[in-house]
Amino acid sequence: MMKHLLFGILCGLALCGCRSQTSFGDRAADAATLAAGNPVEETIRARRSIRRYEPQPVGRDTLLRILDCGLQAPNGQGRESWEVRVVTDSALLAALDRQYGCYVRQVSRNPKAQHPAAYGAPALVFIACDTTYDLSQVDCGLLGGNMILAAQSVGVGSCCLGGLCRFLNAPEGAELLRRLQLPDPHRLLYAIAFGYPAEMPAAKPRNREKVRFVE
Ligand SMILES: Cc1cc2nc3c(=O)[nH]c(=O)nc-3n(C[C@H](O)[C@H](O)[C@H](O)COP(=O)(O)O)c2cc1C
């Protein structure tokens, strides 16, 4: 009798323990249905990384709108700690393609590796963080997030590019990096390719177990 009572208490305690953190699991599906008709949420849910672009350039006005949405992002202490460089010059984009391709072939030890710098996108935005401010990378992430969603809302696709910036920050990329004229103490963090999508990739599933309510 006592054994059963003790077992019951332990099970109860275990259950309470489990309830102290819950994930939202299936309720996410309801959230997706509720998004219908909410343009912001529909834009967020429709965005995917685009790795094939139409050659058509993104007009300067559209690009300026996207960039300005980036600047509207929240930023720590109002410092606007980012530096942003926009490249649409086809000669510079081609040079990036050429040299990044060489670098990828060298690093991967695969002489046949083909890797265009920005998947043929006609515009590349480089984002640099302030190395003297501990939260500058957050500023830069939020800036890019705004740009990506603003772009999506006007039919412009995008893809974040970390690998390209690893190359530019390596000795092999130093000459091209200088062309961006980033002031000290800024360091190139990542880039975003922008252009009209030539593909519509499916959404990758997200792991909702990463989100837990602490109760
Ligand atoms: C910081 C960062 C760096 C990334 N670097 C690259 C990259 O170098 N090349 C690439 O093709 N995609 C890159 N991506 C895109 C991710 O692979 C993509 O966002 C992820 O697989 C989720 O897919 P989705 O954007 O379509 O939802 C990067 C994304 C982030 C946020």
TrEMBL record:
<dbReference type="Pfam" id="PF00881">
    <property type="entry name" value="Nitroreductase"/>
</dbReference>
<keyword id="KW-0285">Flavoprotein</keyword>
<feature type="domain" description="Nitroreductase">
    <location>
        <begin position="44"/>
        <end position="196"/>
    </location>
</feature>
<comment type="similarity">
    <text>Belongs to the nitroreductase family.</text>
</comment>
<keyword id="KW-0288">FMN</keyword>
<protein>
    <submittedName>
        <fullName>NAD(P)H nitroreductase</fullName>
    </submittedName>
</protein>
<dbReference type="InterPro" id="IPR029479">
    <property type="entry name" value="Nitroreductase"/>
</dbReference>
<keyword id="KW-0560">Oxidoreductase</keyword>
<dbReference type="InterPro" id="IPR000415">
    <property type="entry name" value="Nitroreductase-like"/>
</dbReference>
<dbReference type="GO" id="GO:0016491">
    <property type="term" value="F:oxidoreductase activity"/>
</dbReference>
